[in-house]
Design goal:
2 copies of one chain form a homodimer. Chain A is of the alpha/beta class. Helices cover 36% and strands 25% of the residues of chain A. The first copy, chain A, contains 7 helices and 9 strands, in the order ββββαβααβαβαβαβα. In chain A, strands 1-2-3-5-4-6-7-8-9 form a 9-stranded mixed sheet, with helices on both faces. The longest helix of chain A has 17 residues, at 116-132. The radius of gyration of chain A is 17 Å and the shape is globular. The two termini of chain A are 22 Å apart. The relative contact order of chain A is 0.14. Chains A and B meet through strand 9 of A and strand 9 of B. Strand 9 (221-226) of chain A pairs antiparallel with strand 9 of chain B, so a sheet runs across the interface.
């Protein structure tokens, strides 16, 4: 953690089946970054944290994010944290929960707003500082998991943040308005990576996904592909993700 | 098992760490099919069997085959069986253990001998009949695992043998002297498949491997790719193979 870490401001909390879930905000200058933190309800020993980045149209609290966060705590000896992406969840000025609207707003922002990715990377780093300041979250090596928009932000984060020791990325390629940046970032990634792709992805082409996998500088990387459209990632890859992250973050 | 099953003729046996390994021959007409069978040393309940097909230049008893067979018995509640491919191991008339010679002889036979694949498929089916006749091997659904030459024979076997309920294939594409047959066979495969490939395979191109994965009729299939040359399959895929096979063959 850095010296300037702002604390996570907790606003609510609930525990179930051994997992404590806390809603928090971290303030970074004028920005309020809303998040959820999952830790063990009955274990205070510091555990490495995995940052979970949701996809476009989703939020920090969507079902697969919560399920993965809880799984990492219950079965893999880790903690997990999720934040809303820009124009998503509690970050929306209009308070809308319309998923199509969030998707369109994100697509527009990705094209129009130069600082979108750098802002989100800085948000993640502030949140990492804040949660690693807690006694129940371990300092040092952490993990990242995020597909699609979760990779649009997570690939640059993995490239920029030396504490990210292992990363699950995918459902994305070297494409879109910031493709040059993705190519440069991918060439900086040296940690172990599990890259997930959908064989019939209608949003990001197979060739662009292969190009991203190819460009990663990690010697330790693997690609898992399944038939089906963009959003059809099967349950076995969430299990594989959890096992993969834990294998590098826990003894 | 069929009514005409010839018994496995056991010639030697050794047990270590809970795994019983038996050397056997099965006679199919004029052909003697030499194999190894791995079962639990201390458990007589019938277990599903996984057929293990080695790659060109290897044999039924090469290290990674033995290690996988023992792993399936020790950690996954299965049994396993391996046989020598044509012009390999104990099938060599000249008794040579030269791996380069076996590789070259196989390459020549693949091009020259029309019945090579059908003969090997029939060998496997006879061996499956024979081992399923044993009380410690379960009737019915079984698995197949084989890469490279193990897929050259294992893909047609998986297509032809209805008892094969799950298959691990890979390091091969729709290519070579029998590529039309592979395309037709792949389109007949409907069981769950784990397909392994090496991203920098010097023997079978990425595109031909993708074409094979694409042609499989299995809705339940996944592709795992790793950087590196043909033979550099990492340990994690042997673990993934074992978990994958067990998940479909055991309760």
């Amino acid at each position: 953690m850095t010296d300037t870490a702002n604390p996570a401001l907790f606003t609510s909390e609930v525990s179930a089946k051994g997992v404590r879930e806390r809603r928090f905000d971290v303030l970074r200058g004028e920005r309020r970054v809303p998040g959820l933190l999952w830790t063990a309800a009955d274990d205070d020993t510091p555990r490495p944290v995995v940052m979970l980045g949701h996809g476009a149209s989703g939020s920090k609290g969507e079902d697969y994010i919560v399920a993965l966060g809880r799984r990492l705590v219950r079965h893999h000896g880790l903690s997990a944290v999720s934040i809303d992406g820009p124009v998503h969840g509690d970050r929306r000025a209009d308070g809308s929960l319309d998923t199509e609207l969030a998707f369109l707003d994100f697509a527009a922002a990705w094209s129009a707003h130069d600082g979108l990715i750098d802002d989100m990377v800085a948000d993640w780093r502030s949140v990492l500082d804040a949660v690693q300041a807690l006694p129940e979250v371990a300092d040092g090596p952490c993990g990242y998991w995020g597909l699609s928009m979760g990779t649009i932000f997570g690939l640059p984060l993995t490239a920029a943040e030396p504490r990210v020791a292992v990363s699950v990325l995918g459902l994305m390629g070297i494409s879109g308005p910031t493709k040059e940046r993705f190519a440069a970032d991918a060439a900086q990634v040296r940690c172990p990576v599990l890259f997930l792709m959908q064989w019939h992805d209608e949003l990001f082409s197979r060739e662009h996904a292969f190009a991203l996998f190819d460009t990663l500088a990690s010697t330790d990387r693997r690609l898992h592909a399944h038939p089906g459209l963009h959003a059809a990632v099967p349950a076995e890859e969430f299990e594989a993700s959890a096992r993969f992250l834990a294998s590098y973050l826990t003894v």
